[in-house]
Amino acid sequence: MSPALIVLLLSLLLGLQPITTDLYLPALPELTRGFGAPMHQAQLTLTALLLAFGASQMVWGPLSDRFGRKPVLLIGLAAYALAAVGSALAPSMVALIVWRTVQGAAMGAAVMCARAIVRDLYEPLQGAKVMSQGLSGLGVIAFASAPLGGLLTQTINWRAALLVLALFGAVCLGLIVWRFQETLQRKNPNALQAATLLATWKLILRHPTFLAFSALSAASYGGLFTFLASSSFVFMNVLGLSNTQYGALMALNSLGYIGGTFLCRYWLVRFGVRRSLRWAGALSLSGGTLMAWPALMGIQSVWTIMPAQMLFIVAHGIHQPCGQSGAVGPFPQAAGAASAVNGFAMMLAAFAMGSWLGGHMDGTVRPLALGVWFWSALIALSAWTLVQWHGEPVALNRTPSVQST
Q1: H or E element at residue 161
Q2: What share of the chain is helix, strand, coil (3-state, %, to 5)?
Q3: 277-302 as b/e, with b when 16 or more CB fall inside 10 Å?
Q4: pLDDT per residue over 214-254, tens digit each?
Q5: Above 80 in pLDDT, residue 35?
Q6: Which of 136-145, 198-207, 216-225 has the lowest mean pLDDT?
Q7: What is the number of other CB atoms lying within 10 angstroms of the CB of residue 195?
Q8: What long-range pairs does 399-403 form, CB within 8 A, spacing at least 24?
Q9: Residue 59, exposed/middle/buried by CB under 10 A (0-12, 13-18, 19+)?
Q10: What tens digit of pLDDT does each residue of 142-165 get?
Q11: What's residue 382's pLDDT?
Q12: By C-alpha distance, which of 360, 29, 311, 303 is closest to 368?
């Protein structure tokens, strides 16, 4: 596969995550009213999806190490498209939650494989650069998702927005069928054995480089999810923005993320991984702090949230490529399993935050602002300590528990 095709595939596979959430965000208030459901149930359509997304990767990862990336991608993308149709036709909030959970589990196959593919093909430092290119493509998809979701919700209904996800999944599936070539050169026939799985997970969870980069990527995603899960209610219900205006703000947020991925590639060449993340940690903490202080003083305005969010999201565009590729870097023979555990950690942080938000949305901007502030502090702590101590993604020696045969 050519480098351009690899970046396109990564962009689409990684882009499943933002399009599945961002396209849907402008519809949250409307479907809540349409089903006559409480806010916590509406939040559950998002948090359940992400919990299933994280947990499923623990299954998809070993499966991809055993049978290869392509079979897992084919099954996952087919199930994703089917679940998207089910979500669009859901007759009740409960049915919607069920279908979104299935969709999240299927999405886990695509995103997990994307991270594993990078490790299959590249060494860690080069992998971070290629991952940042793929995440730039993700940013473009995210840029279009929220405005498109707002437009479809406003002109047609929220079901039309969810139906677009089925079309996107079908396009990804077609591209994998016709153009993707298997990247796992040596499959591990023992990857699904209980003893091998336990030994592999133990090795992964005890590796300091994995823990350092996973802490960073999980905290960074926790902050992003805080903004995504609460922003539609805050901007539309609290600050009175329309669907279109909210979509424009989300597009601006995506532009900041794209800028962060470009800055990531520049800083990696100039400063290396650890120094780049040290500076990015300062950006994250600055954004979280600037967002929280006005909220604590009772000031509620788009202008007190979005400039601070732009600092946070630019830093997020640096933390994610480095964090995701760095976590998988030490495990060339178990990239699927390592990618799965890293993805599960990120979604666990998102689920915990979503559960907290469901009970603390109080009609003000404080839950959003304080949540981002909390995660920004954890990001800075991880970037300034763990990553500095253990941030050299040196591959493990080959061991029977993780190597292929």
Answers
A1: helix 158-179
A2: 85, 0, 15
A3: bbebbbbbbbbbbbbbebbeeeebeb
A4: 999 999 999 998 998 888 888 988 888 887 788 788 888 88
A5: no
A6: 136-145
A7: 9
A8: 399/203, 401/196, 401/199, 401/200, 401/203, 402/188, 402/199, 402/200, 402/203, 402/331, 402/333, 402/334, 402/337, 403/188, 403/333
A9: middle
A10: 888 878 887 887 788 888 888 999
A11: 96
A12: 360
Domains and CATH numbers, the chain: 3-179+192-390 (1.20.1250.20)
Q: Which two tokens stand for residue 59?
A: 């299954």
Tell me the C-alpha distance between 273 and 266, whole Å: 11
Distance CA 260, CA 279 (A): 12
Mean pLDDT of 162-181: 93
Cβ atoms of 5 and 105 within 8 Å: the answer is no
How would residue 39 be classed by pLDDT, with cut points 50, 70 and 90? low
Question: Distance between CA 86 and CA 95 in Å, rounded?
Answer: 9
Provide the residue count of the chain.
405
**What span, in angstroms and rounded, lies between the C-alpha atoms of 370 and 70?**
41
Residues 280, 285: Cα–Cα separation, whole Å: 9
Which of 128, 131, 130, 104 lies closest to 21, judged by CA?
104
Tell the residue number behind the tokens 């780049």, with chain if given.
Answer: 276
- Report the alpha-carbon distance of residue 43 to residue 371 in Å, rounded: 15
CA 278 to each of CA 35, 215, 314, 346, 374: distance values in angstroms, whole numbers, following the listed order: 46, 14, 14, 20, 18
Average pLDDT rounded to a whole number, residues 281-288 = 96
Q: Which residues contact 5 (CB under 8 A, 6 or more apart)?
A: 179
d(CA 372, CA 309): 9
What is the pLDDT at residue 213? 95
Q: Is the whole model's pTM more than 0.85, yes or no?
A: no
Closest C-alpha among 161, 159, 139 to residue 150: 161
> Residue 27 and residue 146: Cα distance in Å, rounded?
10
Q: Give the list of residues 6+ apart from residue 169 with CB closer than 8 angstroms, or none.
A: 16, 77, 80, 81, 84
